[in-house]
Design a protein that fits this description.
This protein is an alpha+beta fold and about 130 residues long. Helices cover about 25% and strands about 30% of the residues. A seven-stranded antiparallel sheet has the order 2-1-5-6-7-4-3, sandwiched between helices. A hairpin with a 2-residue loop joins strand 3 and strand 4. It is globular, with a radius of gyration of 13 Å. This is DUF2255 family protein.
């Protein structure tokens, strides 16, 4: 499995927004959306505020592939759903949302149900 480099992590995590586009079944990535991303160690996670109603989230679940851009990093990625029962990972992601975006009224919403169950790890492709 390919990992983020320390430089990529620093550049991505320094940004407020993370541009994500899910690859559709036909191989195109027609729309991008700016969302929040958070680090947990050397991993990056995102959540869909709107769940499957989010324009990017349904296709991301269906194909598991897409593209991200943040901090000058532009990468093809895989989206790996986090098991809602994985409390260790979900609690770490919750804490990261509260730390990184604590100044926003939405930080608490992003770290509680039902948004919490829409967690994806973003894994760079080789």
């Amino acid at each position: 499995m390919t990992a983020w480099t320390p430089d990529e992590l620093d550049r991505i995590n320094a940004e407020t927004y993370f541009t994500v586009g899910a690859t559709l079944p036909d191989g195109t990535t027609p729309k991008t959306v700016d969302i929040w991303s958070v680090p947990v160690g050397n991993r990056i996670f995102i959540r869909s505020y709107n769940g499957t109603q989010g324009k990017w989230y349904g296709p991301a679940l269906k194909t598991g592939r897409g593209r991200i851009t943040a901090g000058g990093v532009d990468k093809a990625v895989r989206f790996v759903p986090v098991d809602p029962g994985d409390e260790e990972t979900n609690q770490a992601v919750d804490a990261s949302y509260l730390e990184k975006y604590g100044d926003s009224e939405y930080a608490v919403t992003m770290s509680t149900e039902p948004v919490r169950r829409n967690t994806l790890e973003v894994v760079p492709e080789g």
